[in-house]
Structure formats: structure tokens, C-alpha cells
Amino acid sequence: MRVLAAMSGGVDSAVAAARAVDAGHRVTGVHLALSRTPAAMRSGSRGCCSREDADDARRVADLLDIPFYVWDVSERFQSDVVDDFVAEYAAGRTPNPCIRCNERIKFAAVLDRALALGFDAVVTGHYARRLDTTAGPELHRAVDSAKDQSYVLAVLRPEQLAHAMFPLGGTPKSEVRAEATQRGLAVAAKPDSHDICFVADGDTRGFLRRALGDRPGRFVDESGATVGTHDGSYGFTVGQRRGLRLGTPAAGGEARYVLDIEPVSRTVTVGRRESLATRVVDADAPVWCTAEPPPTFPAHVQLRAHGEPLPASVAVDGQRLTARLERPAYGVAAGQTLVVYERTRVVGSATVVVPAGRAAATVPPSSR
Amino acid sequence: MPATAHYLDHAATTPMLPEAVAAVTAALAETGNPSSLHASGRRARRQVEESREQTAACLGARPAEVVLTSGGTEADNLAVKGLYWSRQGSDPRRRRILVSAVEHHAVLDPAAWLQAHDGAQVELLPVDSDGRLRVDALADAIARDPHDVALVSCMWANNEVGALQPVADVVALAHEHGIPVHSDAVQAVNTVPVDFGASGLDAMTVTGHKIGGPVGSGALLVRRELPLVPLLHGGGQERDLRSGTLDVASVRGLAVAIACAGEHRAALSEHLRSLRDDMEARVVDSVADVRVNARLDRLPGTSHLTFAGCDGDALLMLLDARGVECSTGSACSAGVPQPSHVLLAMGRDERAAAGSLRVSLGRTSTAADTDAFVAAIVPAVERARAAGLAAARP
Prior knowledge:
The complex is a heterodimer. By secondary structure, chain A is α/β, with parallel strands linked by helices. Chain A has helices at residues 11-22, 51-64, 74-90, 97-116, 150-153, 158-161, 173-182, 204-212, and strands at 2-6, 26-33, 68-72, 121-123, 128-133, 136-141, 164-165, 217-220, 226-230, 257-262, 267-271, 277-288, 296-302, 310-317, 320-330, 337-342, 345-355. In chain A, helix 1 runs parallel beside helix 2 (51-64), helix 1 packs across helix 7 (173-182) and helix 3 packs antiparallel against helix 4 (97-116). Chain B contains twelve helices and 14 strands. Chain B has two domains: 6-14 and 265-392, Aspartate Aminotransferase, domain 1; 18-261, 3-Layer(aba) Sandwich (Aspartate Aminotransferase, domain 2), CATH 3.40.640. Chain B has helices spanning 18-28, 39-59, 72-90, 105-117, 135-144, 167-175, 196-199, 248-286, 312-321, 341-345, 350-354, 367-392; strands spanning 6-7, 66-69, 96-100, 121-125, 149-153, 181-184, 203-207, 218-222, 290-292, 302-307, 324-325, 332-333, 336-337, 356-360. The interface between A and B is medium-sized, with 24 and 22 residues.
């Protein structure tokens, strides 16, 4: 096959591209430029986007003896990922930009362009497995559960999955590094990336403040009494405990958590941890990786990239998915992606609207 | 990957002439610093001076007017900064730098740097839709206050679209007011008669690797009496205008290439023009919505084409996969194609600027190369247009 390997300049995408070459595919390496004015050097734990990263990717391509190009996807990245990220926080929701990037950029804009240019598939260094069955391709967790990235890929529809290749899903990360060393790839010792790639210094709150400015508002407790003020509700996430800087201590001196964010009145509700407990999670706009599931079925749901899978009964009614959890989840936030698993298989995903169990002020549902 | 590539990017760099390779390799085997006083040094010095004389003779300059540099970028920097500092030093009113909007970045960026750090005011002079400097705009700019102009820089031929510039008109206008003129002639020397003395220019940039010489060789021709402030200080090897041990091998390679260029210019020019015109006619016949840029008056080996609804970088990749090597012609940042400042200055919008390709022919180009381009471009445009539509989907 003619395949396009997305090469960030990191070790994972390098080994993925190398394995695609070994598998006999005609591989072309592409580095996605997410900014038109990339920084010269890598900083902190960002794993892509600088010219140094693009150069690292190019050196890997040289070694693999494959053609290499840089594709400018900066405009789409800005509108579909960065602006979306800011708007979601402004609306009191908690988005995952890596999911949005997979959904809108890597497996949409880039995949569409690749197919139109005559490629058959896009290869990435994600830790996830695509298993082909008679019913079509399925998305499964990686064998290295610590590195599993199936969560951020759960937005892929069958037609996207059919053109995606994840050569690393069956290998532990440590072996991938060892393989990179053995292949002589200079990126073998490069640190993993953790932070949001477009937040250069890792300071998400500062990034949002620069984008949104000061929007002062109140902290209230569960009775509605004002217990402090803040510079902008976008700086908080449901379930957050640290960095609230509340003026008034709680009656019993216990820790307080963000329970709810109401962006219009800029009110952040805080309260006890127990109040974060949710047994029913409603989510919107489900996407199914393989076939559409039955109206109700038992499954596990996962609410964060490295969250615990929670046993649940899932009910689907058109564009609404409801998960009834066997034991409560804490700190479920609107905008999070709920991913449904059946053992290792990703069934699909949906965007959390608001936990039905919490009687807090409702946030307008996501327009997506 | 096809075994033999069809190299159609001679404006980026062109294969070295066998004569130049021989001269360079012979010189590399010799020991001797041209600044040394002993026999080895004298031998090296003789090589340099003979090369300088050869270079000067082929370009209508006097040997003392040839300041050897590491290439075009250094020569352009020396011209723009050196002239600005010198002119500004002798009269502090002289702060304006007038340059055409389609200059190479080796001219634009030093000018912009002087504006950012050293009080210069840079004025980008407009070009017409064929990429040719508007002489009336230059006249207006000078007339506004002739006394505060430090220098004018206008290239001989544009590196992207190939447009030839009205250098004689520029010189005539500027010299009415005693303003010095620099011209970057790196793209012109191979195929257009370039005579420094006859041109009236005060400074002119040439480089080796665009004409079959080695990369890293070049010169700034500087009129004898023109004061210039140096960029590189040290041993003062080149008239105290440029320091650094002279690279005998590069200097030899440059001279041989310039001499060969002079000898074969007319024939090469005719050969390239006929190849290009034939190729262009076939492309225009077989591809819909293609526009030939700078058609009016341009280098004979350059064909700059805009394909509506395509991304130039997609075309480049598809052609590359078929062994056809060309360029978008514009600068890259981290490999990200930037919209061409040349096409924007010619009045094209960003879409058109992004959908353009530069095919540049050279000494080794054959009909097989242009045939390969014509055969590859038709399906490439078809695919790139489909991809452009795919990318435009929300």
C-alpha cells in the first residue's frame, strides 16, 4: 500500500514509520506543521511543533530512505483545535484537544488529503490496535496499558479507522525505545511529550487568560453563599481542588472541590468531595468505531485519557447516550469525552453534557 | 523512485560544470594561504588574482572591483548594510532604503533588520502584474526627498518568476541624485548579458552555484570609489571590505563558471527558451486553468505556472514521486511553504500564490526532462485539485 506516516519528530511515530517500511509499504513521511511560525527549538515536554522536531522527523525519514514533506495544517489546527479549546473552556466545559486533533486534523483533514493524493492509509505512532474482523476494522486498547491511547482515538468512525494504521499497538513502550536505538534513530532517547502541544510553557491557565482576558466572578458554596472571587471561570475544571485560593475557609475545615462552572454568571460552585459523585452520566453525539451497538448493553466507560474504566450500563437513544455507573465517578465535567469499551474493544465515544446526578446549574450543551 | 530524476530546479542550484569541478579539485590539492609571503602563498595568490581578473573580464568589471565572498547572501548583506552604514555615516539624513518588493530575502531581510535595529526606513517599491518594478513608483519615491535616500537595490532578474528588471532605468533615475544602486544578478549571469561597467551599477552580486560553479563562492562587484562599511572584520583580505582567508578552490571554481557562462550564454539562452516555450505550450494545452506568470520579459529558462485550485506543495510531492523535481520557488520556514511575497506583490491572492510551481531549466536540461514534466503534471494537477477540495471540506 501507499501509506502516509505522520511524523511528529518523536520516537513513537519514527518507529511506526520504520515498521510500515519493513511491512513492505511505500511510505511517505509527513510532518504536520501546526503553526506557520514555529519556534526554532523544542522547549519543555512538548513533543512536536518546533523546527527542531521537524528536523528530527526529517532525519528519521532520511535514515528510512523515504520521501519527507512538511504539511502546513496551521489554519485548520488553529480553528478546529486551539480556538475550539479556548471556546470550550470559556463555556465552562473541559475539552481534550488531542481528541479534537485526531478527529478534525489527523484522521480528517490530513487523511482526506492523503486519500485524494493517492495514499491508501495514514500511519501514526499511537498506542492502540486495529483488528480486522469480518464486520470490519475494530479499535482495541494497546497491549501496554500504561501507554494505551485508544481513548484519544475513540472518535474515529469506521471509514476513518479503515484507513488508519497503528503499528505500535502490540508493543510495550520500552521495546519501542529499544527498537529505535537498535535502528539507529537519533530520536530514541527523546523524552515523551505530556503537555498540550500548543501551550508552550505548560501553563494552561495562563494560556487561557491571554486568550480570554480577565473575567472576574464569584465562588459560591452549595448553599449559594459567596465564599470568594476569581479572575475567570475558565481557569477551573470540575473536580479541581488545588489553586482555588478561596478567601473564606470551609466550616468543617475540609477540602473543597469545584462542583460546577456557570460561565454566563461566571459563578464557580465549590463543595465537598461527596458532592462530586456521579452515578449517571449523560453524553451527546455518540460516534461508533465499528457497528452501532444495541439500545442498552453492559460495558466499561472511561472519562479521562488515563482514567479508570468504570463498569456501567449504557443506553443509547439517538443522539443521547446515558451511562449508569455501578460505582460513582468523581469530578465528571461537561465537555469530557466518554469512551465506551467492551473489554479491550472501543465501542465508541460521546461528549459528556452534564452529569445528571448533580443538581447544579446547567450548562448549555455542546453544539457538537 | 525512478532511477534518473528529471531535475527541473536549476534556479535553486545547477550541476557543476566539469571544468569547474576540475579546477576546484586541482586547487584543493594545493597548499598555500594567498596572504602568505612565501612561494606557496605566492602560488595561491596568483591563482586568486588570475581568477579575479577572469571574473572581472567576463562581467565588464575591473579586477579591483571584485570583492570575493562566500556567496550571494553575503554579497547582498554587504551591499545593503555596507552601503547603508557608509551613506548614513557621511550624511545622517540618508535613512531610506528603496528596494523592489520582489527582492530575494538576502536583500529584503538585511534591509528589514536595518529598519528594526538601526533607524532605516525601508520602502518596498511595487511591481506590475508581470513582476517588473514600476519605475514611476521609484521616481516618485526618490522625488519625495532625494537627499534622504541611502541606496536603491533592484535585482537583475527575479529568482521566482524570472522577471527581468529595468535596471538601466533604475540606475538613470538614482544617479540623477547621486544615489548608489545595487543589483542582485545571481539569476541573470547564466543566460542574460550582464556587464557591470556598462550597467552603471555601483554594486552587483554574483554567485557561483547558479551558473555551474561551487556552492559557497560568490562576489560583490563594487565600484572602486564607492565607500562601503565591512561586515566581517579580521585580516582585511579583500580591500579591507571583507576578511577571511581566501578559498582558492572556490575562487577558481567561480571564475571558471563565469567564463564558461560568458562563452555559452547566447547558445544556452536559445536552447532553454525553445525547450521552455515548447513545454509551456503543451502544459497550457493539456491543463485547464493554468496561468503563465511574468510572461512579458523573463529569464529564458524559467517557467512559473499557477494552477487554480491546487496546492503547490501537493503538486511538488506528486511530481517528486514521479522523479520530476521542481519547486514552488518561494521561501520555506521549517519546510512550511510560505505564500510567495513575489506573487503577492504581483497582485495575486494567497490562494493563487499557494498554487504555483517554478520549473527552471539549465545547461543539462533536455527534451526528455520537459516531456517528463508535461506527462506528470496532468495527473498531478487532477489529484492536487481533488485534494484541495478535500482539504476545503469543513
